Amino acid sequence: MSANESPATPQQPTATYESAFLKACRREPVPHTPVWFMRQAGRSLPEYRKVREGIGMLESCMRPELVTEITLQPVRRHNVDAAIYFSDIVVPLKAIGIDLDIKPGVGPVVERPIRTREDLAQLRDLTPEDVSYVTEAIGLLTRELGATPLIGFAGAPFTLASYLVEGGPSRTYENAKAMMYGDPELWADLLDRLADITAAFLKVQIEAGASAVQLFDSWAGALAPADYRHSVLPASAKVFRAVEGYGVPRIHFGVGTGELLRLMGEAGADVVGVDWRVPLDEAVRRIGPGKALQGNLDPTVLFAGTEAVETKTREVLDAAAGLEGHVFNLGHGVMPSTDPDALTRLVEYVHTQTAR
Fold first, then answer.
1. I want to staple 195 with a disulfide (CB 3.0 to 4.6 A). Which of 168, 189, 238, 310 is the partner?
2. What is the pLDDT of residues 6-62, one digit of tens each?
3. Phi, psi of 171 (to 5 degrees)
4. pTM
5. Catalytic amino acids?
């Protein structure tokens, strides 16, 4: 099966099917608003720092038992309604042989950036064998999680392309945008190839037992809507089409994407993630009907004390009151210096305030 084909039949309902998280994704009535946090498994937890001591990020992602422990930590501590698979968006690129590393304090750094058509040869197809550790880890996780859903994830083609073309993190994306504007055929071929790799990576996770998947287009907010529609949306849509037949919810999230929300919904997601810049009642107006929404408390609010957190959380819940489906989350990832107890209290507050 190629990356842009779907399986003939969707997965059958599992123990997680009636969970609050999956019900909300399907826009069905829920017993309470489900909660999970992007980057909930990570540096804010002392137990995470302990188990990862002396182990590089990419190596951590390739050890199934370590991945399992890290993924489970926030579920145990915070009582969130879903786990997010511990990995990194560059893992599939590393798996196909791209020479890259995640440097502390910097992020992913690519040794040979892709700047020419010849450079595309670095991007071969991803096979399940390339990421057998993912299949093993998800098998371990689903046995431990039981009725708690596991969210698989991948980086979207544009965000992956930005790292590959720039050679690392960027604030301006000058090289990526130069290719997009100056050599649109090369750019389209690059994103199309990344769409196949991304789809293959998500399929591995779903087939191993992930109950939902999220596509992170972290840097899409750097684009004007017309550029997104013409030069990015087709590749993201290809990814979503490739996994549609599995019947698992598909979430699409980006940062600074208030002007792109309708287009991100058009790409094919069932749930659109919203950052903290756009209230959810305005976001649903922009996106249109037929989508659940995820978000969208500003992560920095968690530093302000319990009363302020509850006030701002109440604003998010009030803005979401008319939505068909709402998954509570932050508007971006948990910040490393966040007090874990603040997250635990936040989950309890949302559950209590929204109990049906």
1. 238
2. 564 555 567 899 999 999 999 999 999 999 999 999 999 999 999 999 999 999 999
3. -100, -20
4. 0.95
5. 39, 43, 52, 88, 163
